[in-house]
Amino acid sequence: MLDETEIAERTSARSTASSRQPDTDDPARALPKVATGIAGLDEVLRGGLPAGRPTLVCGGAGCGKTLMSMEFLVRGALEFDEPGAYISFEETEHELSQNVRSLGFDVDALVRDGKLVFDHVRVERQEIEEIGEYDLDGLFVRLGLAIDSVGARRVVLDTIESLFAGFSDMAVLRSELRRLFGWLKARGVTTIVTGERGDGTLTRQGLEEYVSDCVILLDHRVHDQVSTRRLRVVKYRGTSHGTNEYPFLIDEDGFSVLPVTSVGLNHAVSVERITTGIPRVDTMLGGEGYYRGSTILVSGTAGSGKTSLAAHFAASVCARGERCLYLAFEESPDQIMRNMRSIGLDLATPVEQGLLRIESARPTLHGLEMHLTQIHRLVEKFDPHAIVIDPISNLSSAGVALDATAMLLRLIDFLKARGTTALLVSLTGGEGVVEASGQGVSSLIDTWLILRDLEAGGERNRGLYVIKSRGMAHSNQIREFLITDAGIELQDVYVGSEGVLTGSLRAQQEARERAAAVAREQDSRRKQRELQRRRAAVEAQIAALQLEFAALEDEGRVSTSEHDARSAVMQTERDAAASRRGADTAASSSGSKQ
Amino acid sequence: MSTAMTDLHEGATSQWAGDEKWDLRLYIAGQTPKSVAAFNNLKRICEEHMPGRYRIEVIDLLENPRLAKEDQIVAIPTLVRKLPQPLRKIIGDLSDTERALVGLQLRPRT
């Protein structure tokens, strides 16, 4: 047996050795923990299970207790070099190894390598007669042997409650269980004890009474025929832990918990801009497109071109050599590729290059949490720069609307924290208000584009406008959105006295305007010419008058000089006459008055 | 040594026949009071009901821990009646002789 200090040394050495230990509160004072290696669970547990102590994992039948315990051991053996012992009270070693093979764990190899040991403890009440006093030393011996044979640091007892069915003396059983947990603690092994959920209690036999350090509750519930698995840390003595219910998933990669709600709002933001894939939409968004890492919502009615817009974005991401994950909840990958080819968008090449990954799933295939966890996992695996979810509105068919909203909030949080640009497509019902299509997530959306049908003149045309776009100047105008053989094009819509016109009405209006413009120009030219003519005429008149005036002036000058000449002559004659008459000056002056 | 016993009495079907050989195994884990009591009680019963026709093999699991797994032993003390067949398991210190006799099928259930 180990003494206390040795246990402490071992556990602390182990907790520092385990690489995946996020935010422990205070490393000096924190409880030593053992990372489980199970995706997400260590985050929820703020580092892992209490080192050297038993943890109770309880839940109803089929909730995943056994798989979780098994993964705890397998990950311990593979990732942390901590051998494990699995004491099963229900399933045989063969059954267990078969069951977890589907999760990709080769338990048999681990057993061969001496990293894992199994013991199937079978207790059959019918075969056993109880006469007199007994204890469970046999179990202790077996446990001790299992632990010693591989040097186990991790132990699973699954599920020890079966003992209650095998023995009738409850008093003995309870005192033996108490002794067992004390013994396990003294051995310093980190133990998972599983327990079946009872009526109104965590476990049928009240195991939580013995295991007081950490209790994890697994839940498998069905809502509207869709099942969801959730995990909750009921208690964890001496440490903080995530207290919410976290969805978890069991699939071919094992167990994974989704601690998305632990994501805070302190993610770094990028100032880098990335194109929308359509130059004119970039122009509408301040000329540069979306912010990298932002969340974009494209909502619109059926057939308004949402998928085409999303596909353009995806193609532009891949064109930069970045990875894009396209989650399609309505169409198969082939269908999307074919449809986009028809508008001149080649998605097949980026798919072949491994830059684009299209994942299709029916929303009703699993519960929301499963979807969320799967998206989570895909994102972790593929590590995309951008993600398209087409459409998010369908997800509400996989659960209640409120859950769908909560799920999306978590998803958006998760993507934002990773700095993944997310383009979410949302389908609006025909009669609903277009702006109400945010699935309750509009407050989290950075850029919101609306595609809407503009009906007029017996035509349906597509209009695009920006409802909001945080952190950038954006256009407030409606653009007509054309899907052509060469992709999406944007046109200015006609906005004038006739209202907003699109499609052929816009074309007609434009033609009318052109005709009117031509007419106006001709008119103006005609007026110009007339004016010129009149000006010429007036100018001619002016010239004539000027000539007349010159003539008159000339005439005036001539008559004056004649008059002067005559006057001079007359004076001369008068002077001559006066001198002839010998008149005096006065007479001459009076005479001059005549 | 236990395997040497298996060829004893192949077709022992009659449980109440007086000439049956009894092959008993008592699993203990150290010399605990319960184990000692069980052995003494068992010895007494055997001497009374099948003198000379029994054999008690005491297996201390502290010395042979492997047998605990192989023979599916959980509780201590456990008495296994290997012969006569069918195999019976009795746990406890056999302090209640009457019930021990019933358990060993030396006496029919009442």
Can you describe this structure?
Chain A has 594 residues and is of the alpha/beta class. Chain A is 40% helix and 23% strand. Chain A has two domains: 4-23 and 48-226, P-loop containing nucleotide triphosphate hydrolases (Rossmann fold); 273-492, Rossmann fold (3-Layer(aba) Sandwich), CATH 3.40.50. In chain A, a hairpin with a 2-residue loop joins strand 9 and strand 10. Chain B has a single domain (20-103), classed as Glutaredoxin (3-Layer(aba) Sandwich). Chain B has a four-stranded mixed sheet. In chain B, strand 3 and strand 4 form a beta hairpin. The model of chain B is unreliable at 1-17 (pLDDT under 50). Chains A and B meet through strand 6 and helix 6 of A and helix 1, helix 2, strand 4 and helix 3 of B. Strand 6 (128-130) of chain A pairs parallel with strand 4 (88-91) of chain B, so a sheet runs across the interface.
Number of helices of chain A: 16
What fraction strand of chain B?
Answer: 15-25%
Chain pair sharing the greatest interface: A-B, 26 and 35 residues
Span of the ends, CA to CA of chain A: 167 Å
Computed over alpha carbons, the radius of gyration of chain A is 47 Å
What is the count of β-strands of chain A?
25
What name does the CATH topology of chain B carry?
A: Glutaredoxin
* Annotation field: number of helices of chain B: 3
